[in-house]
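Worked example

This section walks through a single chain of length 362. The input is the sequence exactly as stored; nothing has been trimmed or padded.
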Amino acid sequence: MKRFPTIDMAKATRLTREGRLMEAMAVLRGSATPTPSASASVQPGRQRLDAAIALGSAPGVERAARQDASRGRGQRGSFETVIYASATGDRRYKLFVPSSHDGRPMPLVVMLHGCTQDPDDFAAGTQMNALAEARGFLVAYPEQTRAANPSKCWNWFNADDQRREGGEPSLIAGITRRIIADHTVDEDRVYVAGLSAGGAAASIMGATHPDLFSAVGVHSGLACGAARDMASAFSAMRQGGSPAPLRAGARPVPTIVFHGDSDATVHPANGEAVVAQSSSGQSLEIVTTKGRSPGGMDYTRTVRTDAAGSARSEHWLLHGAGHAWSGGSAAGTYTDPSGPDASAEMLRFFLGSARSKSRTPA
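Given that input, the structure is written out below as tokens.
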């Protein structure tokens, strides 16, 4: 097992408050303090935002970051790295193909990691590959680069990365279309989900590409358009951001949301905003239930259905939970194994949602 260095949270907090943001990030990563030249090319606002996200989600004593060398052991299927390149740019992604893939069309789930994570870490924490092997679907994990964001966050707060054409949405959509072209995918069952910055990016993908994705999963994320720059990003993370209106005539994509009501990194009001955005312009019946996970976490689940009985949104408010993937494995970072199984519940919601041919881009 690879052991991570102990994170000095007090020192990281002090450095952040003093404005010594690259040094704070170095402490959070357990690396040496960077030289002045190492931070010269990074915008101060982005440094501050990345440090806030990483500091808020850095694992504590009870949720230690662990990478198990046996990650994926016993898992069948293939998990390979692929490079996608286009006029917009290039990104690596990892693709899991289950051993049962025999040429018949399968669903595809695109998973967008959180800040400081990578595809292997996110796959280990969510255990989505194990579900894919058991249920028979493909899973893709696009990877953000440090060149695009020093903390490997998807740039959900940039206006240019909230557009259908260009920016990160076009890269993620391009990866998705490449997989559809290269593999036998059921195009009516293509889904996207993410955590934190990845959750915000997934929300953006649902808003900008409703003709590509049949449903969206947002865990501890923000609504599309909740921020348009650094200042509004900080405001949205602290107190919630107002979702951007969808284009006239565009029907929102079905969306499932998980958010902890004790999340100190991304305010839980953002989960409500995601639900509001995905429910806008519709007359829906609302049913709320309460429950407790096998691990002892209480939750409130709110489902909104249309006149046909189809779920348009599902909101899991996790009581006492912070900024971590609910029901995830401790083999990955930023997970809370005590919560309800977000991966399994997202998959259930996804497979109950098929793409509507009438959807138009937002």
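What to look for: Residues 64 and 183 are 37 Å apart (CA to CA).
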